[in-house]
Amino acid sequence: MADEQAPTPEEMMRLIEEQSAIAAKHLRGEPLLYYVPWGLAWLLGFGALFLHYGLDGVPDGPVSLGQALAVLFATQILAGAATGFGMAKVSKGVRGESAAKGMMYGYSWFAGVALMWVICMHFTFNLPEAESTLLWSSGFLLVPALLYMAGGAIWTSWPMFFMGAWIAAVDGVGVLLGIGWHTLLAAVLLGGGQVAFGFWLRRRM
User: Which residue, of 8, 25, 129, 170, is most buried by count of CB atoms within 10 Å of its CB?
Assistant: First the structure.
């Protein structure tokens, strides 16, 4: 039986490139589990808040503040669970420095959300209802904005970094315009934008 012919350098290089692409795709994870759940949560949650406040302070729909916040918090919990599942799936079998980065990044999300909750709870009772809601909604957009940018820097992912910058920009403009515009922009540009961004990344994989 003749020995199999050894692969040429070109074939070895092609094989290395193919395996590198597969590994990079695995480490990036499934964008539909990272961006789409949060996009839907913000589209529904901030959309409900917008129906409560409207652009001019007059409600555009029969939605109470309690109902709108319930939708926002419930959908964000579901989105967090979906993202956690995606991160666990990616980190499975990963060891060493990559695993440590992923673990620290996950803890950063938990710490950021917990700290923002404490800050908002401290100030919320001293503010009018609309300003209190604006504090909560803008604060909880600030956390993913900064952590997306940090994650993009850690893993050299420009799409992730620019998504964080986009969230920060929309959040800041919304705060300047007031609660009505903030909820509308968050629902349409951030909620709808994240859904579109997730599907766009998925098509590129």
Answer: 170
